[in-house]
Amino acid sequence: MDIIQSFLNQSGLGIFIIILIGLLFITGCILSNNVGKKYNYLLKCFNDSEEKLTKKNQNDKDEKLGERELKINELKRMEEEFKNSAQLGTTNVNTEVIIQKNTDKKTLTNEAIANILPSFCIALGLIGTFLGLTIAIMNTTGVLAEGTQSMDQFSQAMNGPLVNMSSAFWTSIAGILASMVLNAVNLKMKSSKENFYDCFEDYLDNVIFGIYLKTELKDFNEIVRISMMALAKDMRCLFQDGVKELVNGINKNTIDLTGTVKELTNYTKDLDRLTSSLNQSVENFKDPVDKFKASVYEFTTLSDDLMKATQSSVNKFTDKVDSLNNSLNLLYSGIDVNKQELEKVTNSLKIQEELLQRSYTNFTEIMEVVKVSQDKNSNEFINQIEKLNTGYVTFESGLNQFMDNLKLLQDDISRSISVSLKEEMGSLSNSIVNKLDVSIRELSIAAQEMGNNTSNIGQLIKATNEWIAVTKETL
Asked: Taken in order 329, 330, 333, 339, is the CA torsion positive or negative?
C-alpha cells in the first residue's frame, strides 16, 4: 500500500516521464511483434513452396534437385540475385547481404527501432531520476535558506523535495522494467529472424549454389565442344570439296578419253602418278592419324562423366576421321583451323591474366587506403581520450566545490534548526538536532565515497592513457 501511495504522490514531471516510457514500451512491443510475424511469414512461405523440375546441364533431363517454386517476390529477388552471382563464377557469395538487401525496408527500419527502444526507456528513466534529484536538492536548499519557525512548518516545507525524490526513483524503476520486457520481446523477434536466415541461407548455399555454380571445367568443356564442332564442320566441308574436285577431274578426263588414244594414255599415266602419290601420302600420314584417333578416343574415355552431352558428337567425329584416309592431302587445312582456335584460347587466357593483374593492383591500392584510414581513426581516438581527461579534471573540481558547499551548508542547517527548536522545545530540540547531525554526517560519508569513486575513475583514465601509449608504441 505504501508503494502504491508513493507512486501516486509523485510529481507531474515523474508522471509525464513514466507516460513517455509507457508509450515507448507499447511502440516497441508492436514493432517487435510485427517484425517477428514478417520473418515467420517468409519462413512459412518458403516451407510451403514445392520443389520444381530443374535441368542441371543443357542436355540433361529435368529432375528434382531441391530448387523450390517460390511465390513471394522478396524470396524470388533473393534467389535470382544469388543465382546471378553463382552463374558469374563467384565462389564466396555473401548470402546474408543478399537477403538483407532484398528484405522490405520498412521491416528493417522497424527492427532497428525495436532494438534501440529498450535503451531509450532506460535513458528516460535516468533523466527522470537526475531531474527529480536536482529539483529535490533545489527545493531543500530553498527551505533551509528561508528557515522555519516550527517543526510542522519544516515537515510541510519538505513535502515538495520528498515528492521529487519519489519521482526520481519511480522513473528509473519504470524505465528498467520496460527495458527488461522489451528485451524479452526482442529476443523472440531475433529468434524468428535467425530461424528464417538459417533456413534460407542453407537453401541458397547448399542447393542453389550447387545447381547454378559456373566452374572453369564447364568453360573448358564448352570451348572443347565448340572447337570440336567447328573442326568437324570444316573437315566435312573440305572432304566434300575434295571429292567434288576429284569427280570433276574424272569427268573431264573421261570426256577427253573419247578423243584420242594418246590422250587416254597420258591420262592413265597421270592417274597412275596421282594414285601413287595418294598411296604414298596415305602411308606417310597413317601413323599420325592413328595416333590422333587414339588421343581422341582416350580423351572421350576420360571425360565420359563430364561430357555426356558431347559423347555422341565425339564418336561421330572419330568415324569421320576413319573415312578420310583417301583425302589426307587436305588435312593440313583442318589442322590450321584448329591452330587458329587454339590461338584464340591463348589470347583469351592472356586477357584474363591482364584482368587478374589489374585486380591485384586495385586490391593493393585499397589496402593502402585502409591503412591510412586506420591511422586517422587511431589519432581521433587519442583526441577523444584527451578530451575525456579534460572533462575528468573539470568534474573533479566541481565535485570538490560541491563538498565544500556541503560542509558550509551543514553548519547553516545546524544553526538554523537549533534556533528554531530552542524556542519551541527543550529537550526534544536537542534530540532532533543530534539526529539531523547524524544524517548530515552520513551525507558527508556518501560524498567521501563519491570522491573515492572519482579517484577510481581517475585511475581508470590513467590506465587508459597508459594503454594508449602502449598502442602508439606498437603502431
From this structure: negative
Query: Domain for residue 405, yes or no?
Result: no
CB 179 within 8 A of CB 119: yes
8 A C-beta contact, residue 175 and residue 128: yes
Cell numbers representing residue 237 in the block: 566441308
- Cell numbers for 447, please give them: 560524498
CA angle 363, 364, 370 (to 5 degrees): 85
| 219 lies in some domain | yes
Of residues 124, 121, 123, 116, the one with CA closest to residue 186:
116
Say which residue the cell 581521433 belongs to.
Answer: 380
Contact 303, 220 (CB under 8 A): no
Residue pair 412/456 in contact by the 8 Å Cβ criterion: no
In-domain check, residue 282:
no
Ordered alpha helix ranges (H), 258-330: 261-302, 311-322
pTM over 0.85: no
Q: Which three cell numbers stand for residue 200?
A: 534460407
Contact 402, 447 (CB under 8 A): yes
Q: pLDDT tens-digit profile of 43-102?
A: 888 888 777 656 555 555 555 566 777 777 888 888 888 777 777 766 677 788 888 888
Q: What's the total number of domains in the chain? A: 1
User: Per the domain annotation, does 232 fall within a domain?
Assistant: yes
